[in-house]
Amino acid sequence: xxxxxxxxxxxILKAARAEFTERGxxxxxxxxxxxxxxISPSNVYVYFQSKLExxxxxxEPWFKSKVxxxxxxxxxxAETENRIHALLTALWSQIPGRREGLTTPFMQALAMAxxxxxxxxxxxIWTENKIAEELIEILGAESLTRDQALAYAHLILITFDGVAxxxxxxxxxxxxxxxxxxxxxxxxxxxxx
Length: 193
Fold this sequence. Notes:
193 residues, mainly alpha, Arc Repressor Mutant, subunit A, 9 helices
């Protein structure tokens, strides 16, 4: 059994990030990642079970840092609708549109995932919880139960997935700004009722 090295692990992730950013998930291969990391393709599997697992290991810290950064910069003195607008804009426009190009390859990975790859939903659960907590913070616990907040968070993330997938297509109208406006008004209305 080969011993795992942090240096090799990090080299794989660095090479994978470059491959996913440059070529997308579909065109990136374990062979190319291994060559860029200066190891054999079989050695990659000592560290990761699949290309999907590598994609998650690359995407998760990047995505979490974007969400945490947004939440840290959120203006808690802003009006309810403006705060929701900022949250949705971050999730439906800013993060999927980042030049680093990690959201599109991540969506490709999810679209191609098979049950055998055993997708780990930890990032999804973390994100839904963060969004739900933020919605409760904005709207108030008296306006929104945790279950309701999680349902809205799930809906927001499904929309995130769709927006991210559509970014790869040409010729489609971008309605994300209007979607943000309408959903922010809808959610802000919960606090008023």
